[in-house]
Amino acid sequence: MSDSDNTRGGVSRDQAEDAVRTLLRWAGEDPAREGLLDTPKRVAKAYGDWFSGYRSDPHEYLARTFEEVAGYDELIVLRDIEYESHCEHHMAPIIGRVHVGYLPNGKVVGISKLARVVDAYARRFQVQEKMTAQIAQCIQDVLAPCGVGVVVEGAHECMTTRGVHKRGVSMVTSKMLGQFRKDARTRAEFLRFIEVGSARR
Predict the structure, then answer these.
(1) Handedness of CA 79, 83, 87, 90 (dihedral sign)
(2) Residues paired with 152 in a beta bridge
(3) What gap in Å lies between CA 16 and CA 29, rounded to an integer?
(4) Cα(88)–Cα(76) distance, rounded to whole angstroms?
(5) Do β-strands 93-103 and 11-12 pair in parallel, antiparallel, or remain unpaired?
(6) Which of 24, 67, 143, 149 could lock 29 by a disulfide, CB 3.0 to 4.6 Å apart?
(7) Among residues 187, 100, 177, which one has the least CA distance to residue 144?
(8) Contacts for 181-185 with beta carbons within 8 Å, 24 or more apart?
């Protein structure tokens, strides 16, 4: 294991594992009992996956574009991009879908790159409103399209497993830039394509 894998943000893996043991004791458990012996190691490893977005630059995913599109300048939509994130207020999961649309301005990007942009922002501590804006602004900054639309649906476990304990509730946020904000027809076409909350699933 390299030093970079073992230390992040000035915190060593050993310190991270000790922090998990502290939380287990605070919850009323005994970190030394058999079932919990490897839990600190597993949690530290899981954090490396859940928050891998801090180690990537979403803008880089969009750097390679394609201009041979035969003049295509109509709406491009990628819908139902599944994501898992964590609420920065309670560190509880947020699970949902992202829908992305853009109007190309002479160049397009591979669709898997849009999904990678979503993951890069989702795999951080997040507020859904901020994540929605970050995804849209990243696409606008790098691709410079005529417009961008992003809609995010999320189920927040900080609401379902604690506090008000309300299940079956989802939050929907959107960010519209360029033609998506200025032109109601473009916006309506995008929303028709994604049909948020419809029975198409």
Answers:
(1) positive
(2) 98, 173
(3) 18
(4) 31
(5) unpaired
(6) 24
(7) 177
(8) 181/147, 182/147, 183/147
Residues with a catalytic annotation lie at 87-90, 128, 156, 158
Q: Which residues contact 103 (CB under 8 A, 6 or more apart)?
A: 73, 74, 75, 76, 145, 146, 147, 148, 178, 179, 180, 186
Phi, psi (rounded to 5 degrees) for 35: -65, -15
DSSP 109: E
**Residue that the structure tokens 């992305």 belong to:** 100
Q: What contacts 149, CB < 8 A, 6 or more positions away?
A: 99, 100, 101, 102, 136, 174, 175, 176, 177, 180, 186, 187, 190
Beta-strand (E) ranges in the chain? 7-8, 11-12, 65-66, 76-87, 93-103, 108-109, 125-126, 147-156, 171-178
Q: What is the pLDDT of residues 92-149, one digit of tens each?
A: 999 999 999 999 998 999 999 999 999 999 999 999 999 999 999 999 999 999 999 9
Grouping H, G, I as helix, E, B as strand and the rest as coil, residue 106 is coil
pTM equals: 0.90
